[in-house]
Write a structure and sequence with these properties.
Length: 258
């Protein structure tokens, strides 16, 4: 087990949460810190809060890079989309803004990609060596596609068009709340969504995360799919843990990964 923890930070719509992660165990080394997301949540305003989180844990994280998640497409350190976040993230050099503000390397990743890697490395999919599709049901739908432990980033399958709609507007957990749906009314929407993903990708396993996965027993057993579908295990720790893992991996810090 390594002695140095890697800081993972999860940027969400209401809170920015961070914790040092022990990547040997795949769990928080100490309790997490949560600070409300600023309004407006521009990259610069969020960088200030990310810096506060990093300063809070400075004694525990050595010189390791910091992993940060964002609910957007991220390529080469730039955020390329903003489905449920401030539009100023589109085409922002976000990784550079964070790295400059923190004065240390920051690795920025899509939130669902981070959660997905955490579930594959340490959680519900850790024994699966095939094609795993991790989905998070929240404000939007996040997706991570991982084949034999290797992530294909930014799949954004929450936005596939089904029956003329952007899928997440119909099947995210927020759609259930917005429309006041009972589980008996929400399940057909999930059925339509997961059967479409199954037809397109033939995965070996679906893992379902997001806050609503706490109640997975109320909807997962009702889905009729060929593919096994199971709840995420790491719940709201997955983004932070996966961000830390991806940051250490991207930096080639194999010393931190075991
Ligand atoms: C965004 C994704 C994100 C997902 C979950 C979607 O609306 O486009 O980037 O992963 O929500 O937060």
């Amino acid at each position: 087990m390594s002695n140095t923890a890697v800081l993972g930070i999860d940027i969400g719509g209401s809170g920015i949460k961070g914790a040092p992660v022990d990547l040997g165990r795949g769990d928080f080394a100490t309790d997490r810190l949560r600070i409300p997301t600023p309004t407006p949540s521009t990259p610069q305003a969020v960088a200030e809060v990310v810096a506060q989180v990093a300063e809070h844990f400075a004694d525990q994280i050595g010189d390791a890079p910091i992993g940060v998640t964002i609910p957007a497409v991220v390529t080469h350190g730039r955020t390329r989309s903003a489905a449920n976040i401030d539009k100023s993230w589109i085409d922002a050099a976000a990784e550079q803004i964070f790295t400059e503000r923190l004065g240390r390397p920051v690795h920025l990743v899509n939130d669902a990609d981070a959660a997905g890697m955490a579930e594959v490395k340490y959680g519900a999919a850790r024994d699966n060596d095939g094609l795993v599709m991790v989905t998070t049901l929240g404000t939007g739908i996040g997706t991570a596609l991982i084949y034999r432990g290797v992530l294909v980033p930014n799949t954004e399958l929450g936005h596939i068009e089904i029956d003329g709609h952007d899928a997440e507007t119909q099947a995210a957990a927020s759609a259930k709340t917005r429309l006041g749906l009972k589980y008996s009314e929400y399940v057909p929407r999930l059925q339509r969504y997961y059967e479409t993903l199954e037809r397109l990708f033939s995965p070996d396993l679906f893992v379902v995360g997001g806050g609503i996965s706490k109640e997975a027993d109320k909807f997962l057993p009702k889905l009729a799919l060929k593919t096994p579908i199971i709840p995420a295990e790491l719940r709201n720790r997955a983004g932070i843990i996966g961000a830390a893992w991806l940051a250490a991996d991207a930096a080639g810090r194999t010393d931190l990964l075991s």
